Each structure stands twice: as C-alpha cells, then as structure tokens.
Amino acid sequence: MTASRHISLLVTSGSGPAECQQAVAGVLDVMREEAEFFAVDFDTNGVRTKHGYKSAVVLVSGANAEAFVKNWCGTIQWRAQSNLRPTHKRANWFIGVFDLPAPVQALERIQAGDVTFDTFRAGGPGGQHQNTTDSAVRATHRSTGLSAVAREERSQHRNKALALERLQHLMAAQAAANEAAQKASCNELHYALERGNPVRCFKGRDFREVKGG
C-alpha cells in the first residue's frame, strides 16, 4: 500500500465581507475537484452561512498530499462583481489557505463505538481502483457530526480503519482551528491575508482560474 500523508488546512474569509464567504465556498469546490486529479482524499468541515463559509477546515490525505497543498497555501484572489451588492465598485475578494498546526491539547482517541460507519460503492480518487462491492466507508462521529471517507482499499475492513484514522486527524484539525480562533495568534490565520500577492486567482461565478494573476 502507498504511504499516506495527512495535512490539515484552514480556508478562511478572514474579516472579509459576505463576498469572501462566497469565495471560500467556490474555492472549496475547486479544491475538491483538483483533489481528484492529484488522487488524494479530501475531507472538510465548515459551518455554512447564508452566503457560503466564513471558514472551513480541510484534511488532505494521500501520497500526493504535499504536492496538492503546495498549490494552495497563501492568499487566493477571486475577481467577480458582487451579486449581493450590485452597485458596489469592488470586484476583488481575498481569502486565505493556511497550514494548521497540531492542537496544543492532545485529543482522546476516537472509539469505534462513537462512530457510525456507512458503506457505499465508489472508486478511489481520480477513478482509480473501481470497486464492484460496497467497500468504500464513511465514518461519522456521532456527537460532532464530523465525517471522513476512505475508498482506495478493496477491503472494507481496511477502509474502515483508514476512515477512522482520517476522522481522528480531521477532529484534531478542527481543534487546532478552534484554539487559533481563541488566541491572539489567530491574526496570522483569520486576518493576515496578503492582499495583492495571491498564489492563485479565480474569476467569475464559475471560478475559472486566471493564469499569471
């Protein structure tokens, strides 16, 4: 089996307006599609707002996780006329994608009895290892509602163990995000968006990427 890597990210609108929350939602969709290309698993948790997400925690898992993340960390620019304030002159919105550190306080190990497992038929990321049995597994933590998916193994038992492992990492990432939000250091995450120096730029309601900014 290929060695797996887990990387936790925070995708945040910072102190930006509702249009930035729309940008977070759009970028999460693009990230999910790109994860298929990189053949990595993509799990996310965020509280939906009226317009999108103020922030979301992302867990990327797989041998190509570092290559995937390298394309995203930093400031992301979205160019679009506001559909919330049509007369508003601003048409550039910025969000941030940041590495999340491990939480300061170690979490208790998730017990299988606290998790609901659902099986379904699905191929691996990028359409690999298409299964003909319901061997893919989604693990959902009952008290928090967090969920993670594993589908690359042909064994349902192995996918169950992988999904539980990813759920543990996703919970740790959420705990780290919560810790950051309660400290002054959250300025480095939620509010320190480097406007004018984006690592990637998207345009329009369909989030088409603009090469070269």
- What is the second-level CATH architecture? 2-Layer Sandwich
Q: Specify the number of helices.
A: 3
**SSE string:** EHEEHEEEEEHEE
Structural class: alpha+beta
**Termini distance?**
39 Å
Overall pLDDT, averaged?
Answer: 85
Let me know the number of strands: 10
Strand numbers in spatial order across the main sheet: 2-3-1-5-4-9-10
Q: Helical content, roughly?
A: 10-25%
Number of separate structural domains: 1
The portion of residues forming beta strands comes to 25-35%
How would a crystallographer describe the biggest sheet? Answer: 7 strands, mixed
Oligomer: single chain
Question: Ranges with pLDDT <50 over ≥5 residues?
Answer: 126-131
Describe the structure.
There is one protein chain. By secondary structure, the chain is an alpha+beta fold. It has one domain (6-209): Alpha-Beta Plaits (2-Layer Sandwich), CATH 3.30.70. It contains three helices and ten strands. The protein is globular. It starts with 5 loop residues before the first strand and ends with a strand. Residues 126-131 have low confidence and may be disordered.
Which helices and strands occur, and which strands form pairs?
Elements: E1 6-12, H1 18-38, E2 41-48, E3 53-61, H2 65-70, E4 74-79, E5 92-99, E6 115-120, E7 136-141, E8 147-150, H3 156-181, E9 200-203, E10 208-209
Task: Summarize this entry quickly.
With 213 residues, the protein is α+β, with helices and mostly antiparallel strands.
Task: Provide key terms for this protein.
213 residues, alpha+beta, Alpha-Beta Plaits, 3-stranded antiparallel sheet, 10 strands, globular
